Amino acid sequence: MSELRLNRATKEWIIVAKERAKRPHEFHTQKDRKGKLPDFDPDCPFCPGNEKRTPPELFALRDEETEANHPGWRIRVITNKYPALEPKKTVDMITGEFFKSTMGVGQHEVIIESTRHNKSLATLSLKQVQEICGVYRKRYLALEDDRRFKLIIIFRNHGISAGTSLIHPHSQLIALPLVPASIRHLLEEAMRYYDDHGSCVFCDMVRQELLHQKRVILDTKEFVAFHPFASRAPFETWIVPKNHNACFGNIEEEEIKAMAYALRDILHRLYLKLKDPDYNLMIRTAPIKDAQEDYYHWYIQILPRLTTPAGFELGSGVFINSSLPEETAEFLRD
Fold this sequence. Notes:
Elements: E1 3-7, E2 12-16, H1 27-30, E3 57-62, E4 73-79, E5 101-103, E6 107-112, H2 126-144, E7 151-158, E8 170-176, H3 181-197, H4 201-212, E9 216-219, E10 223-226, E11 237-241, H5 253-273, E12 279-284, E13 299-304, H6 311-316, H7 325-333
Antiparallel strand pairs: 1-2, 1-5, 3-4, 4-6, 6-8, 7-8, 7-12, 9-10, 10-11, 11-13, 12-13
Helix pairs in contact: 2-5
C-alpha cells in the first residue's frame, strides 16, 4: 500500500507509491505518430473491447441496454490500476516522533473521456466535452460527503512531458485525506487579502483583467479566460467563473455547459496555434470544508509544457517566463 510521508522542514506531504512504477508506458512508442494515431488501438486498455483489462467501472455514460464493463459506453470511470492512494475504510493516525507518516488512504480514479483513441478535449465535439465536465461534477459530488477526504483534485496530463503514460484521452481524480501545504498557503493568502480588502482576490482579478483586456482571450457570460499578469510559464491560462464560488462541486448543470464551452475553446486554440502542445490541466478548488467561503474561488489552470523548470526555478521557487502574457494572449485571440 502507498504511504504518506511528511517533510518536517517544508511541511510538504510526499506520497510513496511503489506500485506506480509498474505502470505501462505506451506514449514513447506512439509519440512519433502524434496526430496520426489510429481511431482504435487493440493494445490500449482504455479502448472499447478491452474493458476486462481495467478495474471494474465505477460509473459510465452508456448507450441504452448495454452491460457494465462491456462496449457501449461513451465515458467510463474506473479505479486507477496503479493508484497513488488506495481506498481503505479508515484513515490511520499520523505516527512517528520526528519522521511522521501515515498509510496512503484515498481515492484515485481514471475518467476515460472517449472511445476514440486519437481524440482529446481539443478535438471532441462540444456535446462530448459537456458530458465529460458533467462526469467531473458527478464524481466530485460522489466523494465530497466521504468524511475520510479533505480535498478532491481533478486533473488532466496531456503528453509525455506532462506526465502521461497512456495516450488514450483520459483525466484523473484523486481524493486526499489531508490538505497539502501548497493549498494551505494559497488559502491563507486569499484569506489575508479578504481581511485587508473585504473582497475575494480572484473576483477582483477577474474585474481587473476585464477592465484592462490586454490578457483576456475569451469573455462569455459565465466565464473569462486569460493569461495571468504574473504567469509562471508561456501560455499559462486561467478559466475563471465570473460568479463567486469557492468550490467546483457547487456548480449547477447550466454552468457545466458554459464551462465546457470555455474549456474546449481554449484547448482548441492551443491545439491549433501551438500544434497540440503537451499540458497539465487542473481544477483548482477549495477543500471540502471550505466550500462555502467568501475568500476563495475555484478556477481551471492550464499549463502548457513548452519550457522545463531548471535549477534556479527549483531552487528559489521563482519561475522565469520567457514570454509576455500580453503577447501570448493576443496570439491566441487572433
